[in-house]
Amino acid sequence: MNQRELELLSAYLDGQLSPSDSTRLESRLKSDLELVSVLDDLRAARNLLRQLPQRRAPRNFTLTRKMVGLNPPLPRAYPAFRFATTLATLLFFITFSVNALAPQFQQTLGFGTGGGEPEVFSAQAPAATEAPALADAATEAPIDSTNLAPLPTMMPPSEGESARTLETPTAKDGAVGNADDQDQTQVASEAMPVPVPFIPSVWLIIFAVGAIVGAIFMAAMRRSSINRWK
Amino acid sequence: MNEQALITDAQAGNLDAFNTLVLHYQDSVFNTALRILGDEDQAADASQEAFISAFKSIKSFRGGSFKAWLMRTVTNACYDELRRQKRRPTTPLEPDTEDGDEMDSPRWLADPNMTPDQQAEADEVEHAIQHCLNNLPLEFKTVVVMADIQGMDYSEVAAAIRVPLGTIKSRLARARLRLRECLQGFAELLPASYRLDEGVALSASK
């Protein structure tokens, strides 16, 4: 028996032959006992396979959402909230960074050492403008202080010298007082820097609030979707 | 069960609809995997993998026989499992006989609720057939499992494993021939009505 005959018998067994092929094979089966026997064997083998018990599945193979990585359907507004929250967070950090770093950059680059002071340092202006006023007051003071007693460390001057002393100490005192006042002013201005933010702080607050509110809304939306989904 | 409606819903992401299909087909899928792999635990794992894979790719189902499409998925899962076994071979959990030969049907794995005789009668034919199936080349085994055990017609089998109809006919005939030869060795185990004529079988196979 060749392969072709075996295929014909197998297909005949399953009713897969064309009517003409079936008729031809049936006529051969009437005279060829070997073909009949092989057909019987194929039928017996097929029946054995069909007789195999169909086992029940040992458990249900139904899928859970976790198994297939499904996420709950989120509201349509969710992506808009996500975008807004991300943007607000980003802007908050940019604003914060700019305000924190801008003065240092400006100092590093030497802004304000030339003719005009940058706006950033304008907060020091009030302290600086007080200094000349004090200095002026100091220069005017000797008019009233001419009658003050000479400094205890000074030797009693002669008459000529006393007249000069009356004038020069005034100028000297004025100059010394002026210098001291300027030093004090400088120290005061260095000790109390009041930086002005590059971007107004109100924006910082707006972005922070936007980011927090957006995050809260997103969390609430997600939780609500999951609860509905369950 | 409106299968087409369930498929459409499942394609839209409805897991409940897909699970209804799972419940309907899980026995067929499991039995196909069991006969290809010859091991219940592996068959259960392959079936689960097949359903997960089927859900993820159900959008690619373009109509036709859903069972055939599902069978393709489970045969692919079985092939993956067999490839894995090839990479990491394991020792079969089967005891040796006194002569050192491996027993085909270890009795010590039998169901304790049945008497030994009942267990033997119930298992002998099945084990003999499974043994012969395991000895078939994989492509023959897949065809014979689908056509003769699952009762799928030729066109469904051809669609499931994506080979021409003529190839299905050829593989099925050769698989049946090899099974017949193999089952000759278990003639004494088979019921009288299924015993094969050894003389004719041998002459036919020449």
Which secondary structure elements does this structure contain, and how are they paired or packed?
The complex is a heterodimer of chains A (about 230) and B (about 210).
Chain A: H1 3-13, H2 19-31, H3 33-51, H4 65-68, H5 78-109, H6 125-145, H7 159-191, H8 201-229
Helix pairs in contact in A: 1-3, 2-3, 5-8, 6-7
Chain B: H1 3-11, H2 15-37, H3 40-56, H4 66-87, H5 116-134, H6 138-149, H7 154-161, H8 165-184, H9 198-205
Helix pairs in contact in B: 1-2, 2-3, 2-4, 3-4, 4-7, 5-8, 6-8, 7-8, 8-9
Mean model confidence by pLDDT of chain B: 82
Distance, first to last CA of chain A = 64 Å
Beta-strand content bin of chain B:
under 5%
Please work out how many helical segments of chain B DSSP would assign. Answer: 9
> What is the string of SSEs of chain B from the N terminus onward?
HHHHHHHHH
Helix content of chain B: 55-70%
Instruction: Count helical runs of chain A.
Output: 8
* Share of residues in strands of chain A: under 5%
Q: Radius of gyration of chain A, rounded?
A: 52 Å
Instruction: Give the CA-based shape of chain B.
Output: globular
Folded structure, characterized:
The complex is a heterodimer of chains A (230) and B (206). Chain A is mostly helical and 230 residues long. In chain A, α1 (3-13) packs across α3 and α5 (78-109) packs antiparallel against α8 (201-229). The radius of gyration of chain A is 52 Å and the shape is rod-shaped. Chain A is built from 8 helices and no strands. Chain B has 206 residues and is an all-alpha fold. Chain B contains 9 helices and no strands. Chain B has helices at 3-11, 15-37, 40-56, 66-87, 116-134, 138-149, 154-161, 165-184, 198-205. The relative contact order of chain B is 0.09. The model of chain B is unreliable at 102-111 and 198-206 (pLDDT under 50). At the A-B interface, α1, α3 and α4 of A face α2, α3, α5, α6 and α8 of B.
